[in-house]
Recover the amino acids of this structure.
């Protein structure tokens, strides 16, 4: 569904991504793990068009994504749940979700989507009229996920949904994501620093270090790898 | 006492129009974070547009002297909105929105110089095209008043034109509030203001949202300008006199708050009219800024300054 080939990108002259190739098949749950500064967020921003690549190709559903203007990419079915949540603080929870549903499919499926989102993330229903900026980090993260789901995406990209959250909150959000995936069969691309949890639930994983894919494979391969065990799993 | 009530009434009437004028600028600043120094001159264009629509384009002939001016004023709004749309498309968009990433100081230096340049061109272009003679949109209502009262032997006189100006301003404010809070376009404008990057992730075209805000802001201020012109004569440099009031109103209301800008403008109108009770008229503007500084001293974020900062 999403195919990234030989992608290079960076800010001014400093390269952050170097010849990165990643494949996400329809219905797959793919995790990208790696340390801070490995280029994970830059990779997502390049997919969404906020960062312009210096080389390489991205195709989504057979469409050359780099030829599509950034705001149009959401309309193709890519939902980006950004790092640091980035909800709209002065909009209410409901209005944030409506912004997620700006795409044609989001508008069409609004009623069924909102019902399912409220079922998966009940806190959003309780707080539907609250301003997003006044919610806790965990609640904002759930709103960011709900906002992504409201667009009826084909691909949900999650950038470190556990960042800055208490471990128990992060666990809860992970559990919700796995449940959402189990029920919806949605294709997901996850970037995470909580490597053990990410690899456990993903079908396929990539290890990104200093802008390079240093390792890839299904979760058994990755978890059996000595370097991964030492560097990320603490074994 | 009678003088006080009379000044209060006058302040409320003019304050509503100032409020609308400030909202036009506040919308542009709130959504785009662009400091538009030319906004007073867009208002001047709005005044002349209303003037020529009324006198030369047949509005006077069709609607007469009483209703005609207000029809012309309301028509000037869309005209200036279209003008603003093209100014944004051809000029402002090059130094704002998604293009600022590559510019120094997030494009603010370029924005200042560009809008100052536009201001100079509009002022001097106006002088060439319209001449330096004072113009005004007079209606028979401008020189007649409704008498309120008498209550306890006191009556308050409300100038008819200014009263209608106020009603038109309030109606526009209500329409705009509904647009901003209820419609998809309004919500996407607020989302683009809150977080342009996240708005792009939602599929909102931030540059188009900016263009909409700029056009709306110009149209609204043009209508406010036309309303002012029913009582105050104007000339091509009139924008300079008002742009300072606009900025004071926007800052008073709280940078970024659209409703706040209205109350900021209202405050300025009230202070301006009330100050005439104790100060000579020449000191009206001094009074405005004394009160302005006082309010900002105690409440630096303005009346409706955001409690939640952008992430």
């Amino acid at each position: 569904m999403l195919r990234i080939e030989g992608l290079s990108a960076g800010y001014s002259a400093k390269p952050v991504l170097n010849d990165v190739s990643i494949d996400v098949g329809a219905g797959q749950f793919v995790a990208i793990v790696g340390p801070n500064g490995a280029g994970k967020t830059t990779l997502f921003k390049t997919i969404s068009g906020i960062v312009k690549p210096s080389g390489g190709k991205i195709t989504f559903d057979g469409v050359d994504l780099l030829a599509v203007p950034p705001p149009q990419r959401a309309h193709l079915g890519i939902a980006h749940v950004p790092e640091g949540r980035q909800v709209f603080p002065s909009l209410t929870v409901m209005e944030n979700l409506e912004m997620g549903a700006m795409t044609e499919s989001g508008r069409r499926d609004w009623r069924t989507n909102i019902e399912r989102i409220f079922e998966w993330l009940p806190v959003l229903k309780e707080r539907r009229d609250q301003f997003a900026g006044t919610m806790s980090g965990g609640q904002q993260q759930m709103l960011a996920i709900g906002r992504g789901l409201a667009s009826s995406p084909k691909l949900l990209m999650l950038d470190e949904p556990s960042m800055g959250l208490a471990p128990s909150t992060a666990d809860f959000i992970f559990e919700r994501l796995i449940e959402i995936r189990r029920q919806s069969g949605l294709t997901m691309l996850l970037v995470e620093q909580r490597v053990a949890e990410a690899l456990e639930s993903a079908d396929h994983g990539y290890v990104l270090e200093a802008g390079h894919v240093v390792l890839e494979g299904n979760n058994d391969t990755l978890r059996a790898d000595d370097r991964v065990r030492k560097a990320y799993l603490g074994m | 006492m009678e003088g006080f009530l009379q000044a209060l009434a006058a302040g409320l009437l003019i304050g509503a129009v100032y409020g609308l004028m400030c909202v036009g600028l506040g919308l542009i600043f709130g959504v785009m974070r662009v400091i538009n120094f030319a906004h007073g001159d867009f208002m001047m264009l709005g005044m002349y547009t209303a003037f020529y629509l009324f006198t030369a384009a047949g509005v006077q002939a069709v609607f007469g002297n009483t209703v005609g001016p207000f029809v012309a004023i309301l028509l000037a709004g869309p005209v200036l909105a279209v003008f603003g749309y093209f100014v944004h498309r051809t000029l402002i968009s090059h130094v704002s929105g998604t293009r600022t990433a590559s510019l120094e100081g997030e494009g603010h230096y370029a924005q200042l110089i560009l809008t100052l340049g536009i201001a100079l061109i509009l002022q001097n272009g106006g002088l060439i095209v319209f001449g330096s003679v004072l113009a005004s949109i007079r209606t028979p209502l401008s020189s007649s008043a409704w008498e309120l009262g008498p209550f306890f032997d006191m009556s308050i006189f409300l100038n008819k034109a200014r009263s209608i100006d106020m009603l038109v301003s309030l109606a526009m404010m209500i329409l705009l509030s509904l647009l901003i809070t209820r419609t998809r376009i309004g919500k996407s404008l607020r989302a683009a203001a809150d977080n342009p990057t996240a708005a792009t992730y939602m599929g909102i075209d931030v540059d188009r949202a900016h263009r909409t805000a700029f056009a709306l802001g110009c149209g609204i201020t043009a209508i406010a300008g036309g309303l002012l012109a029913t009582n105050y004569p104007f000339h091509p440099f009139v924008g300079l006199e008002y742009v300072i009031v606009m900025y004071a109103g926007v800052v008073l209301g709280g940078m970024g708050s659209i409703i706040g800008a209205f109350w900021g403008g209202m405050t300025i109108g009230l202070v301006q009219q009330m100050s005439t009770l104790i100060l000579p008229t020449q000191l009206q503007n001094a009074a405005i800024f004394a009160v302005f500084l006082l309010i900002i001293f105690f409440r630096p974020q303005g009346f409706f300054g955001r409690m939640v900062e952008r992430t």
Residues 245 and 268 of chain B are 7 Å apart (CA to CA). The longest helix of chain B spans residues 59-90. The beta strands of chain B are 145-151, 154-159. Residues 307-311 of chain B have pLDDT under 50 and may be disordered.
